[in-house]
Every structure is written in structure tokens, then in C-alpha cells.
Specification:
Elements (H helix, E strand, L loop, with lengths): L2 H12 L1 H9 L8 H7 L4 H14 L2 E6 L2 E6 L2 H14 L15 H5 L1 E3 L2 E3 L1 H12 L3 E4 L2 E4 L1 H11 L6 H4 L4 E3 L6 E3 L1 H13 L3 E3 L6 E3 L7 H4 L4
Antiparallel strand pairs: 1-2, 3-4, 5-6, 7-8, 9-10
Helix pairs in contact: 2-5, 3-4
Amino acid sequence: MTPDVLIDSALLLGDHSRLKILWALLERRAYTAGELALVANLSASSASMHLAKLLNAGWIGVTPRGRHRYYSIADDAVAHAVEAIGAIQLGGEKFRNPKRPNPGSHMRRARSCYGHLAGEVAVAFWDALLEHDWMQQDGKRFILGADGVAGFSALLKCRPDEAMLKTSVTPCMDWTERMLHLGGGLGVRIFQALHDRGWISPAPRSRLVTFAPGRDRDLVALAFDD
């Protein structure tokens, strides 16, 4: 790290409002500019200005979803720096955490989202794919590993060389959890396969999804379970 970069980083973290924004993002959930403005007691325009500086510096990332843009910590290195400086600058200061939507425990647990699975179970599924190396992050892209291609081809009863399994995986920002879940064409096909197997039951005229007993615990392990 050059002296100029170190100075720029110190200036970014030296601002109390920016540090509050970064501190709120340490839980690895994503929030909108308006939600982060409330945390840092900023106007919308001031929050947007601070977020633009953090984006430009590569300290945070942004994920568009519909008319909203969700901001999150860029990586572990940023998180560690924020934790170290925040522990000194913020001390025991108390401030509001961003509020997330709470549509009820059942809807928050599992629901549909543009034809794919969303909610706590979907976020846990996404995390499990990464943990079990079914999916890997390649820069800003997510791709299936060899185990993921084999597992999903078995679950979906398709060829391992099908384009859907060879292209980038589409992440989707979860409305309630503010973390990523699996979307796109692959997410839709998985949702349909789970429904066909009787693992999930979408409620009529509602986004609510109910899992058969035990089927929500580890979808990766269940992918080969007939």
C-alpha cells in the first residue's frame, strides 16, 4: 500500500458518518441509501454523497434490484479495517441498526420471488452452495463448480453441459434478509423441481412457500436424495 492510498483510506474512515454507514454494513446484510441515511442521521443527499465516495474507493458494493439499490461491504479486508477503526472511533456509542421488512415469520422463512425461492431458507441454500463448493465466486460473478454442475444436473434431470449450468449464476438480493439468494433461470428450474418432488408447496394467491418436514434444512445434501 502506497502512502497516498493509506492517506485516502484514513480520510474515508476518519469521517464519522461514513464510519457509521460501514459499521452498519458489518453484519454482511445489504441496505438502501435511505436506510443507511437513518442510521448515520444524514439527509438523503448527504448519504448518497458518502456512499458514492465509498463506492468509488471500492469499500462497498451495490446490487440493483427493481427500483432499489442495495449497498454492502466489499470484502473481508474492508470489514477488518472497519472493525479495527470503528472499535476506536465509535467506542461504546449506540446508534440505530437498519430496520428490515418483517412480513411475518412464515413469509420471512420461505416465499417465492419471480418464480424462484426466497427467504431465510433460500439465503441458507446460497451460503451452503458456496460452503460446499457447488458454487464459486469469480470476481463479481458466481459460477457453478464441478460438484454443483453434477448435483444440479441430477436434481433437474438435465445434461451436465446444458447452458444453464455453464453460464454465470444469477444472484438476487433477498427482500427481508438483505443477503443474496439464487435467482435467474437456474433458480426458477430449482423451484419447479422442488415443487415436482413434493418438497415445497406454494400457497394459492400468495408468495408463501411451505416445505415438507426436514426438506428445508440442507438442500445441498438433499439434492441427490430421491
